Amino acid sequence: MNKLIVSVLLFISTLFSAQKPVQIAFLSDAHFQDLYGSFSDHDFKGIMNPKTGKSTILRTMDSQLHSTRIFNENYFAFLKALDDIAAKGIKIVAMPGDFSDDGQAYNLRGLHGILEQYHQKYGINFYLTTGNHDPVGPFRNDGGKDDFLGQNGKPLGIYSKENIGKSADKIITKDIAESGYLEILNELKDFGFYPKKEDLFWSTPFDQDIFKNYTYKKGLETAEYSKRMYEVAKGFSVPDLSYVVEPVKDVWMIAIDGNTYIPKNINENPSNASNYKGASIGYNNVLTNKQHLIEWVRKLADEAKRNNKTLIAFTHYPMIDFNDGATSEIKNLLGEKKWQLERVPQEEVAKVFAEAGLQIHFAGHMHINDTGIRKFGENVLVNVQVPSLAAYLPAYKILTIESPDRMEVQTEVVNDVPRFNELFPLYEKEYKTLLYDTTKILWNKDILKTKSYHDFMLFHLKELVRLRMIPDDWPVDFIDKTKSLNGEDLLLLIQNKDQLKVKGIISDDFRKWSFDDLLLDLYKFQSADELAKRDIPKQRLEQYQILEKLYEKSQSRNLFVMQLKSFFKILSLLSHGDPADHFEIDLKKKEIIKL
Questions:
Q1: Contact yes or no for 345/319 (Cβ under 8 A)
Q2: Which of these, 315, 345, 353, 351, lies nearest to 327 by C-alpha position?
Q3: Which residues lie closer than 8 Å to 272 by C-beta, 6 or more apart?
Q4: Helices (DSSP H) in 262-334: which residue ranges?
């Protein structure tokens, strides 16, 4: 009798586990830098933190606030995200590139250690694909940074050889060189780049015998570095670490290596590491110089359909325009080379991959939260932009596969991070030193008063806009004209008090915020999409909508008013995109449904 009960319970348990939907966490642009790492050929362990008594290898706050990513606190956010994922019982984590910050050996070792720890402790399997920061180029190249923090609060240079970099105070270690594909493959092969014994299927674009009689041994042979090369230009062969894996029954994950490193000079030696253009432009170069990937995706999609496999792709680069239809308006206001517009994929990218049979794609690179959908006849492609842990708004995505045609995507924001302020005493020292440097614009020390990781990252965005985005992207005369304006001024530029009275609009209420607030809110929407609304007062959002409508109707030919009209159109489009927080993808209906 007892045996019968046990058998029934086992059967029910098996049935339940078989029906449990597959979940995959997507964790992009971690830009991992090992604060507590070490060099294999130098005894420098960093500078002593008086708060912890630990030596720390960190970059300056000044460098963080001029960069679209932070370099230091994301270390703690990465651990927090992995703890969250482990607590949720998710066993598959995909990392769509920029898992390191320029692929230096000491950072790769540190990342390996953490991923291995979470694999051993929680049974999490990690599947990585490369971004433009890992590797920076196809082959190992000397490098380094001028902006590590030194013991005296001044910048410290760490370089891989003596004659590079501009810092007088410096350390030389081979472990700061930018690793190439070979070094990354050797260090991180256990995390998707090579097959695991438990994988049901694993292959690369270069496997001719792709679907027949798969064995682990065959997968290992296919994974060898020498068998993963292609000709990017005549006479120039570079690696491609793309792969497809079946980690659980009937789910195929395609890790596409979207890096395309093109030679600058075709008369140079193909092994010259510095003769290749960076890959940050993404899929536009894949269409011209990496077409074997399109044919490979087509083969996989056809085979997946025949065998009822659910196909999920992830790459570093977006396949769909991520500006919610605002790209042409941004060009019109700022010019073609501003606002990272060179990274926007051509419409042809989505069309080519949708027609190849791809339907679901997760991407990183832009450090933004966004969803895009394109339909071409019977074909549909959904592109989900995974935010970065190293930028506002820090978050990761969870995909739940309910069925091959229906999936749920949830955005998990990383608000509270233990130890996020661990390095603040070191920044205090940096700030005191900077007070004596009259050549630099000082960063705002109030960032060291933030009480949560969320507030810290919001402050980072605010400083980034002030120190970099405004000087780099916006016309000087436009910023000069707007800097003293408040919301009421913007109203009165296109409506007089009598017109506003007729519409029931009280202009005094608009005085509470300045154009600087509005500009920062625009960047919040660009970064966080609908989740930005949590960080903007409700009344101000309602006032923005009033201004959007009024400027849209304006017929003024005044250049400044026309610029503002463009500005409000961009704001409107960025704040009303496809669902990007919690939504369902219905492939039968070819639509995204907000949940």
A1: yes
A2: 345
A3: none
A4: 283-289, 292-306, 327-334
Q: Which residues contact 578 (CB under 8 A, 6 or more apart)?
A: 324, 370, 371, 372, 373, 592
Under 8 Å CB-to-CB from 564, ≥6 apart: which residues?
490, 493, 551
Q: Report the candidate in 397, 410, 411, 382 with the shortest Cα–Cα distance to residue 589.
A: 382
**β-sheet bridge partners, residue 131:** 134
The upper half-sphere exposure of residue 485, i.e. CA atoms within 13 Å in the direction of its Cβ, equals: 17
Task: Determine the Cα–Cα distance for residues 303 and 209; give it in Å rounded to an integer.
Answer: 13
Query: Among 408, 412, 410, 390, which residue's Cα sits nearest to residue 400?
Result: 408
Q: What is the pTM of this model?
A: 0.95
Q: How far is CA 447 from the centre of its chain?
A: 23
Give alpha helix (H) positions in 201-359. Answer: 216-222, 283-289, 292-306, 327-334, 347-355
Classify residue 376 by burial, with Cβ atoms within 10 Å: 0-12, 13-18, 19+: middle
pLDDT per residue of the chain (595 residues) written in tens, 0 to 9: 455 565 555 555 444 445 689 999 999 999 999 999 999 999 999 999 999 999 999 999 999 999 999 999 999 999 999 999 999 999 999 999 999 999 999 999 999 999 999 999 999 999 999 999 999 999 999 999 999 999 999 999 999 999 898 888 999 999 999 999 999 999 999 999 999 999 999 999 999 887 888 999 999 999 999 999 999 999 999 999 999 999 999 999 999 999 999 999 999 999 999 999 888 889 999 999 999 999 999 999 999 999 999 999 999 999 999 999 999 999 999 999 999 999 999 999 999 999 999 999 999 999 999 999 999 999 999 999 999 999 999 999 999 999 999 999 999 999 999 999 999 999 999 999 999 888 888 999 999 999 999 999 999 999 999 999 999 999 999 999 999 999 999 999 999 999 999 999 999 999 999 999 999 999 999 999 999 999 999 999 999 999 999 999 999 999 999 999 999 999 999 999 999 999 999 999 999 999 9
- The alpha carbon of 152 is separated from its chain's Cα centroid by a whole number of angstroms, namely 33
Q: Are strands 155-159 and 144-149 parallel, antiparallel or unpaired?
A: antiparallel
Residue 395 token pair? 């978050």
- Please tell me whether the peptide bond between 96 and the residue prior to it is cis, using omega within 30 degrees of 0: no
Output the DSSP codes for 159-213.
Answer: ESSTT--S-SSEEE-GGGSB--HHHHHHHHIIIIIS--TT-SEEE-TT-TTTTSS
How far apart CA 412 and CA 273 sit, in angstroms, is 38
CA–CA separation, 258 and 320 (whole Å): 14
Surface-to-core class of residue 189, CB atoms within 10 Å of its CB (0-12 exposed, 13-18 middle, 19+ buried): middle
